Amino acid sequence: MSGPSHHPGEAVLIDYAGGALCEGAALVVATHLAFCPCCRDAVADLDAVGGALLEELEPDPLAPGCLDALMARIDRESIGARPPHPAPTATTDPRLPAPLRGYLRGPLERQRWRFLQPGMRGLDLRAGGTASVRLLRLAGGVRVPRHTHDGLELTVVLEGGFSDAFGAFGPGDMAVGDGTIDHSPRSDPEGCLCLAATIGALRLTGPLGRWFNRVLAF
Amino acid sequence: MAKKGRAQGRVARRSGDAGCPPLVPARLFALNGGMTQPAAASALAATSLEDLLVAVGRDQDRLAFGALFGHFAPRLKSYLRRLGCDSGAAEELVQEVMLLVWRRADRFDPRQASASTWMFTIARNKRVDSLRREQRPEFDPTDPLLLPEPGESADQRVESRECNSRLRAALKTLPAEQADLLRMAYFEDKPHSLISSEHGIPLGTVKSRLRLAMDRLRRALRDG
Predict the structure, then answer these.
(1) What is an example of a Pfam family matching this protein (chain A) (predicted)?
(2) Between B73, B134, B194, which is nearest A62 by CB?
């Protein structure tokens, strides 16, 4: 069976389906979904659960006249003026799946990548919410300093891959890091392009940690 | 604007679903041809929510929209109040959601989702947009990069009305600790990690309760 072998897990998918994940973290999950038919199916189930929960909520009656007011508004906004379906993003990088393309202007090579450490560059993306979300580009065989997470770190591989004590991660694979995980990933020989969202801080735990904590500070 | 009489007696037809039985009874469209309100109301009562959405999407059927509003608007208000809106703000947002329903009903596909599932996704996205001022990133089902389906096609899922009622029945049988967590996850705008820390429930317990709940609900969705 094709498709990724590392998944967000039920709890993160529930956060996504319920709408509780902030935009940056939801972007990582949505990018994983573009690679992963089984998680798309799982999210469809979770949407159905949302529908069933909505259905069984105690109805809270609206003030009289709400429907009439809405119909009057629909009349005013003339039906001919239906909003067009969203236009495809003008500048796209064909290597990136749809939810991510909308966050970039132009191909990856033309972006302003920021130096993070030798062999590792980052590109911050603009997304609402409390997570910082960035693309990370690692040359082959680069080791990321050992770290853990005060909050949550969601990472999805786009190209190449990396490995840590929890396994090998290839395109579409998603790594969920929380306070229970202390790791030091190393990129594969061909390098790695990934998308990572961090809610709360990364905390470096290795000997050079303090210095790197400043470099990686969000 | 209702297109009076145009659709009278027409068989439900959407691209690519040859062989499906008509989803909208002809008598519903007859309503547009000048039936009186009481008759209309009784005919609508016998029509499923999915049929109503299809009628709104294809024919901009106002009676069908009114019936959908009557069913969903008070539930949407309840949903938004649980998320922290006061009554007035909730009612305004309900109108915004129902306006989107009017505009987008033509994209509703009853083969893929029940009406309440579809309404939930519209309401969720709208409240993320309005209450948090954030976008909702979603995969694009038409993206050529989308990984093809292995084996049987999960994207061609069928969420029948029977699935939906089994799901609702199963929700009622969940142990309280699982059902409570599930409601918090959907109605409190808090990721599970925050639910864990705010309620003093260990993260592992939150995850395993949610997983157990979903195991049971998935069985209800699948077993026909």
Answers:
(1) Cupin_7
(2) B73
pLDDT of residue A71: 95
pLDDT tens-digit map of A143-183: 988 887 777 889 999 999 999 988 999 999 999 987 777 88
Find chain B residues with C-beta within 8 A of A33's C-beta.
138-139
Residue B74 to residue A10, Cβ atoms within 8 A = no
Q: pLDDT tens across B41-55, in order?
A: 555 666 899 999 999
- Return the C-alpha torsion angle B198, B204, B208, B210, nearest 10: 30
Tell me whether B53 touches chain A (CB under 8 Å). Answer: no
Domain ranges in chain A are: 1-84+99-218
* CATH number for the domain running over A1-84+99-218: 2.60.120.10
CB A173 within 8 A of CB A197: no
3-state secondary structure of A41: helix
List chain B domain ranges.
26-132, 161-222
B72: its two tokens: 């969903």
**pLDDT, tens only, A79-115:** 555 555 555 544 567 778 888 988 988 888 888 999 9
Which numeric CATH code is attached to B161-222? 1.10.10.10
Q: Looking at the structure, give the CATH architecture of the domain made up of residues B26-132.
A: Orthogonal Bundle (1.10)
H/E segment holding residue A24: helix A23-35
